[in-house]
Structures are given as C-alpha cells and as structure tokens.
Amino acid sequence: MSLRSGTQKAKKYGTPTTPTSTTPKTPSPRATGGTPTPTTTGTPRKPTGRRGVIPQTAAGIAVQEKFKQQLQNNPIIRAANTALKNLASMEKRYASVYDPRSEGDKLAAQNKIDNELEKIKNEEHRLIEIELTSNVNQIIGALESGKQLYPDWFQNNIVWVQTGQITPQAFLDSYYYLSNEGTIHAPMAEPIIEEPIIEEPIIELPELLPEVIAEPEINDSITTNMVTQQVINFNIVNGRAIGSIRFVATENFNPYYYGKNILSIVQFKTPNGVNILPSVKQNNLRFTETERDEIINFDEDMKGNTRATVESFVWEWIDKPAGAFSNKYSIEISETETAKPLSTGIMGAGVGGAIGILILLGFIADSRRKK
What we know:
Elements: H1 6-13, H2 56-73, H3 75-97, H4 103-144, H5 155-162, H6 168-181, E1 227-237, E2 240-249, E3 262-269, E4 281-285, E5 293-301, E6 307-317, E7 320-324, E8 329-334, E9 340-342, H7 350-370
Antiparallel strand pairs: 1-2, 2-5, 3-4, 3-6, 6-7, 6-8, 8-9
Helix pairs in contact: 2-4, 3-4, 4-6
C-alpha cells in the first residue's frame, strides 16, 4: 500500500474541507509597512533606433540552463537523489515484508523521505538566490559603467536591491520590463557623416634642377710666422737643464687651428751636435682667441754636460715638419752663462739646417721604436 494514500492521510490528518474563497481587500499603504515597490509604472518613452537590451525570454532560458547544470554538478543534490532512490526501495521493502498494520515503520520511512525532500528544496532555493544575485550584480555593473542607459528614478531600485529592501527577483522583473519597453537601452551610436572628397587639380610644375650647395672652402694653411718663441731663465744647474720657453700665437695665426692641438718638440744636444737625451720632449700647445700664449717648463738631466744646445720646434704633427708654425728656435745654455738665443730657422738654415732636421726626424722615429 502506498505511503501517500488518501486513507492514511485521512486517518492522520482528517478529511479536508473545501475552503470558501473570499476576495482579499487591497492593503492600505500604511498597513504594508512602507516596503518599496520596484518602479516600473508610468508611460515610458520609446526611443527610436536599435537598442541593445537583454530580452527577458533569452535571459530566463540562460538562467534555467545554468541552474540545471549547477543542480547536476552540486554534490548535495546528487546525494539527495541517491537518498531518494534508497528510500523508494526501502518503501517497497517495508510494504512487502512488514504487516500493513505496522504504521510506525511506514511513518518513519515517510518522515525520512520528507526530510530529504526538504533538503533538496532548500538547496534549490539557495542556488536560485545565488544565480539571481549574480545576474543583479552583472546588470548593475553594466548600468553604472554606462553600457546601458536608464532613467534617474531607476537608481532607487538599484539602492533598494543592494540594501535588501527588495528581492533580486523583484529587481530583475522591473529591469526586464523597462528593457522590453525601451526605457533602459544601450547608448545610441552616433552616425558617421562622411564628407565628400574633393579632388584638387594636379598642377604639374616644371622640373627643377637640384640646388647645388657649394661646400665652404677650408683654409688650413700653415706659415712659420704664426707662433713666436722666447726663452725664460734657461741654465744648467747642478747638472740639470732648468728653464722655460714661452710660445705666443701672433696676429698671423690661422683661426682654423684655434682649439686644436699642435705640437712642441724640444731636443738637447752637446756642442758637437750629439743628442744628450734618449728621446725628444713633446708637449701639446692649444691656443684660443682669448688665450694666445703658453709657457712650457723643463727640468732635464744633462748627463754630466756643462754646456748644451736646446732646439725647439712647433709642428702640426710629430712627423710633419712641413707644417711648421714657427722657425726652429735654438739657445745655448751652460752652468756659468745665461742662455743665448741663436738666430737660426728652418727656412734659413741652409744645407746644415736641412741636415739637422733630417737627423731630428730620425731621432724621433728611433725614440718611438724604442718605446
């Protein structure tokens, strides 16, 4: 005998009577307790053009499909279904084994089934509330980000559902109603107005020859009257040649070489013309328009010689005597006498001077190889 038969229920609860239907009165606003009602009334203005709304039917179908999937994957629902199957088999077993008059066992089985059904109902309600809340949050996000436009008074519905004064289902019903009516819609896309393209007439110009820009000529010429040299207190003291030579850029100095390094070369010789030092002394000179003189100091070992000849050159480079900014400047120094400048020069030295220049170049090359 079925646990849900009318006879058993009549015995337990009595025979129900048919209720008398009465028309309920409309509650007054004061009796309702002031619960907000979602705003959906009024004559909404239907804007023209296509609007991106969420149709209620499509949204409802999506919610149902997602809910079914959650029910299938929910472990509580799966466990409840298994329990129902077990209880159904238990009911059949009780009906076949126990005496029909054993109502206590049958009622216990029925109570167990009712408890499991209540668990399933509560879980379904919880999942539905979660799904509705998720949909509400998604819609509110679209409204507040500007993806959907809505009237100002609909902000009340947003506040009410967020504070729990109305249910998520009531909010969704109001939203879908206003969306279908066109009151809530996506922003209108502004039409793109394409201006006509007016082609300008092509005017052919006569072919012009490329302009040839002449490069400025660089004057890098060098003459021997561009730098003067002057001795300052040059003597041999305690076997060392100590003194200074002053170099001055004259009015004939080529401005091209301002700010560029030029070379001062000095060598020390015995009165017989033998080089005293193993290498020549090299120093850089750098003249500018405002600094036109430099002084170079010397302190060299004379290797026991008490007399010596100092020869000074100002060249563009170490191995370029043709680029001489000054004639060769020679002075005689000793331990007892003051320095005596000699009147010699590269251009006026004759054959002996030319031979001396060649010897100096050979000496410079030899000293560079030793380094």
